[in-house]
Amino acid sequence: MALPPPRVLLASTDAAARADAGDCFRLRAHELACLPHVINIGVQKAGTGELQTWLGAHPRLLPHGGEVHFFDTLRREPPCGRPRGRAALRLRYARFLWRRRRLTAAEASGKLLYEKTPAYFDQARPEVVMCAVPSARLLLMLRMPTARAVSAYRMCQRELQLKWCRSSFDAALARVLTLSGNRSVPSLRKAALRREPHFRRLLMMGQYALHLRRWLRVVPPRRVGVVWLEQFKYDPFACLAAVEDFLGLEHHAYREMATKNSAGLWVIGKSKSSVIRPPESRPSASSIAALEAFYSPWQRRLKELLLNYNLSLVHTPAPPLALNT
Ligand SMILES: Nc1ncnc2c1ncn2[C@@H]1O[C@H](COP(=O)(O)OS(=O)(=O)O)[C@@H](OP(=O)(O)O)[C@H]1O
What we know:
The chain has helices at about 15, 50-55, 85-95, 105-110, 120-125, 125-130, 145-160, 170-175, 190-195, 195-205, 210-215, 230-235, 235-245, 255, 285-310; strands spanning about 10, 25-30, 30-35, 40, 60-65, 110-115, 135-140, 175-180, 185-190, 225-230, 260, 265. It is α/β, with parallel strands linked by helices. The radius of gyration is 21 Å and the shape is globular. This is Sulfotransferase domain-containing protein.
């Protein structure tokens, strides 16, 4: 089914107070700034960049490109209880999204507008996102939390080279994770974590159920769709078809344009995953086991949420929720 042309509203408080996902504001003669229909809210290192590349090849989808970081960097809570507050937030968001490249009516017409910021999952306030775009659909890409944590730490070491990720993953983990008393599940050392806020965030991001619950308090579950990187790796075509169904898009001929790169991964055009990286040190088996034990209660809770709210877009292969402990 073709999307109707977007509603083009005046960039005024009255109009913006009525705006919703997919609506556009007229800024100058032919320039528009639009609110997205879809937001990919996370998570980091779960393939959101790759998914955006694939979706960007769909003729009916217009990705913003890059990462937007609007909701995770808002300094003050917008006054969403009031129409003026809602209007101001919507105008600000649309302008911020398209600040480098304004849209024309022809570009936006018939397109599903898409933005992705994986930091939203744990850093944005769902109430504020829903205040800006009440009927938006949210895509969530997950990855086994231990693999995600290791990948995020490696990216910090390789690309960002920040102070907080200088030590080995094993050493960093040993500083903050403890097996105390007669507990079988390791817990986080609060005092150590206070000194390591970045590593704390990296670890807590994998407590997916904790964050997902916050979103489900304000977003109707039918508007949330979850896909896993492990499923994407196994069969990107099935994942894309499931995402297209969720977004109401017709199936695009991805098989005709995808190629396999030297790492054996299906890609569209250039992919970061095609860059050959030097071998990286692996965390020890005991660190992996400790992390898996740490995440296992959260994976159990996540499994319940996914089932109870029917959030999984892909069922074959099943979401990788196996509990090792
Ligand atoms: N085509 C394809 N197929 C399967 N898997 C792929 C593909 N492209 C990227 N990847 C994997 O995605 C991981 C990076 O995820 P993100 O794009 O979300 O990373 S980022 O947060 O934007 O940096 C990254 O994980 P790591 O290798 O652990 O870094 C990639 O292996």
